[in-house]
Amino acid sequence: MTKNTSSEETKSSNSEPNTLQRFKNEAGPVGYIGAIIGVAILLGTSLYFYLDIQKQKKNATAQNEIFQAQYYYEKDSIDAGLLGDGRNLGFIDIIDIYSGTEVANLAHFYAGASYLKKREYQKAVDYLQKFSTSEEIVMARAEKLLGDAYMELGNFTDASKNYMKAAKTVNDQFFSPGYLMKAALAFERASDLTAAIDAIDQVINKYEDSAEYNDARKHKARLEALAGN
């Protein structure tokens, strides 16, 4: 008699839906899928904020590390800035250790500028190409340095492109005219006199109050003579 009662209880228990099944039945297919999506979004958001906090902490630590390297750069102690001094990290180590942070991005700029000073032009290009920022003046400076490195490598086409990017990025009378004059020289070296004259014309027409204005007029006359105009 007891055996039959136990068997019936087990059968009854197995026939009752579990918690998940009850939720499926009550919520329906749409509600169930919506709940799954909601949980996924919640988990994804939590993970995003956790990773963002970790990245901020990593960036703060990297900021403390880069100060000494920046000091060496400003003092023209280029190797110490690049490779560190045995106690403090250099730009190269900061890039490796703190990859993905804003400070590592900035270290690419300093590393590229440092290699340019060391006349290791291809390395300068490699690091400067990986740098980006929304700060227009700094970004224009990076494009200008890239142009300088390409000029030294004899790649006048890419040099001119980067000088023009620099001029367009910052677009003011203090920096753009100088970048445009460099672009004109690069175009001339690349035997593109038309583009060289166009770059000079931008200085003359847009930046009359700039320090480069008078030189631009002289260079334009020279270029037009070369072009047979």
TrEMBL record:
TM segment ranges: 30-51
Gene3D superfamilies, per the entry: Tetratricopeptide repeat domain (1.25.40.10)
Compositional bias per record (Basic and acidic residues), positions renumbered to this chain: 1-11
Region listing for Disordered, in residue ranges: 1-21
SUPFAM superfamilies per the UniProt record, alphabetical: TPR-like (SSF48452)
InterPro entries (alphabetical): TPR-like_helical_dom_sf (IPR011990), TPR_rpt (IPR019734)
TPR repeats: 140-173
Transmembrane as UniProt keyword: yes
Keywords annotated in UniProt: Membrane, TPR repeat, Transmembrane, Transmembrane helix
Protein name, per record: Uncharacterized protein
Species of the source: Roseivirga misakiensis
Lineage: Bacteria, Pseudomonadati, Bacteroidota, Cytophagia, Cytophagales
